[in-house]
Amino acid sequence: MPKIDPKESKRADYASTREQADGAWIAHVDEGSPAWEAGLEEGMRILTVNGVELRDIIDWRWEADGNEAELEVLIPGDDDVYGCVLERVPGEDWGVEFTDVLFDGIRTCVNACQFCFMAMLPEDARASLSLRDDDYRLSFLQGNFVTLTNVADDEVDRIIECRLEPMNVSLHAISPEVRRSLIGRHAQRGIEVLERLLKAGIEVHGQIVLCAGINDGDELRRTLDWVEQWPTFTSLALVPMGYTKYSKRFSSSFSEDKEASRAVVKLLEPYQERARAERGITRFQLSDEFYLDAELPIPSAETYDGYPQFYDGIGMLRSFIDETDEVCATRKRELQEVAESFSRQGLRVLLVCGEAASSVIDGFCDAWANATSTGWSCAKGYPIRNDYYGGDVNVTGLIVSRDLLAQLPGDLHGTVVVLPEVMFNFDQVTLDGDTQAHILEEISARGGIPLVAQTTPHAILDALLTLR
Fold first, then answer.
1. Is the pLDDT of residue 13 over 70?
2. How far apart are CA 303 and CA 300, in angstroms?
3. Among 65, 201, 243, 337, which residue carries the largest CB count within 10 Å?
4. Are the beta carbons of 70 and 7 closer than 8 angstroms?
5. Can you tell me the distance from the alpha carbon of 460 to that of 419, in angstroms, rounded to the nearest whole number?
6. Alpha helices per DSSP H over 200-257
């Protein structure tokens, strides 16, 4: 069987409001496809493929890899099960989509991590946010980070046999006593599984949530030394522990300590230099927060090795800065058109963002003004302070509706409000349970013109061009 490629996804959906699937339920069948020709319809459930019960989309892709597949299908309502055979020409898609990628439920976490964000949520947070997933399949399919502490031996065999890579693994520390302190009594199982995968040549992207005084300093050096010995451990991201005002354990982090952040940057430099010299990649990377907290320049794009951990906050700011330069160089005419049109209409633009991204958003607005002959500068960043979570939470992806609506002006006439797409999950719901539709209605009721866009210069410009 060929290696299975992960499903393309721009970002993982960490806060879905949808119920978990309890089987391989069909969500859609393309008309004229092999699945359609075989009589499959929305609402049916595929029980087996070639005699194998389906646990998840991985089983489906693995068992239905050829040009013929024998199915057992359940018709809801009358509980009838019938068999059918799918046939296709080489390269043709089966034409069937499922309601979920997991058919037997999500694997939950067995750990008790000191820094678990789920333990720092407000009491009124919706129930789906407290679901602590730790499922190796979502690591492969969606890029979620997992500890591997709940993976059985037969599941390790499956990962290796099906080449489910890269695996995105939360490492945190290598010394058994430190891992146990950070993660709990199952900590060593994660290392046992990880070493089996690495010995089998499975590619791994790792993550360390760095907690000051716990797994930094000498312990961090030990962990980095351990990672260096494994060739298929291709990237390791260091992110600072974040805390909310509801945390009972933490009340400070690297965000309040410039020198501590600088010490982390300095400690990592020789590992990065060795990796570049020996392998041509940086390999060991810091999240954007460390450079912001240390008040140091954001590294160049080459440092990020093609951004393998972009949605873990690794290189987002550098990507935005470079894309700003690209937009100003290659789309100057469109920038000019928007500036002239909005100037005539008397419109201003508010680009909603988290406080951490405020400086790069302002840099985009300034570059836009400098790139146009009008000098139009009515676009500006609008950072939202995160009162809902508090603590040191300041990223765009954790903006909630109640903070947004409380801090936006009451009168938005003549104002285009660009909302970051990342503040909504795939069901278009915010972390505090509001809907995108309601927020857009509220902004419109205040006289504003709401737009939703990815937080990139190209996407922002594309969204604004629809209003010129």
1. no
2. 6
3. 243
4. no
5. 10
6. 217-228
CA 393 from chain center: how many Å? 16
Place of tokens 């460390």: 290
Which has more pLDDT, 373 or 308? 308
Ranges of beta strands (E only) in 142-294 are 167-170, 204-210, 233-240, 284-286
Q: Determine the Cα angle at 195 with ends 191 and 200, to 5°.
A: 155
- Cα 28 to Cα 53, 62, 78, 310: the distances in Å are 20, 20, 20, 31
Neighbouring residues of 249: CB distance < 8 A, sequence distance ≥ 6: 114, 243
Beta-sheet pairing, 80-87 with 68-75? antiparallel
Specify whether the CB–CB gap between 183 and 149 falls below 8 A. Answer: yes
pLDDT at 8 over 70: no
The distance of Cα 100 from the centroid of its chain, to the nearest Å, equals 18
The average pLDDT across 74-101 equals 92
Among the listed residues 222, 258, 227, the one whose alpha carbon sits nearest the alpha carbon of residue 240: 258
Cβ contact 170:236 at 8 Å: no
The DSSP secondary-structure symbol of 11 reads S
DSSP character string of 405-447:
HHHS-S--TTEEEEEEGGGS-TTSB-TTS-BHHHHHHHHHHTT
Question: Do 454 and 320 form a contact (C-beta atoms < 8 A)?
Answer: no
Over residues 375-401, the mean pLDDT reads 92
Cα separation, 58 vs 103, whole angstroms: 10
- What is the CB neighbour count within 10 angstroms for residue 66? 12
- What's the one-letter identity of residue 315? G
41, 95 Cβ separation under 8 angstroms: no
Length of the chain: 468
Q: Please state, in angstroms and rounded to a whole number, the distance separating the CA atoms of residues 220 and 215.
A: 6
E strand map for 24-164: 24-29, 45-49, 52-53, 68-75, 80-87, 96-98
CA distance 397 to 74: 40
Alpha-carbon Rg for the chain in angstroms: 24
pLDDT confidence band for 118 (50 / 70 / 90): confident
Instruction: Give the phi and the psi of residue 437 in degrees, each rounded to 5.
Output: -60, -40
Structure tokens at 201: 């040549």
Helix (H, G, I), strand (E, B) or coil at 73: strand
Residue 31 CB neighbours (<10 A):
8
pLDDT tens figures, 240-272: 999 999 998 888 899 889 999 999 999 999 999
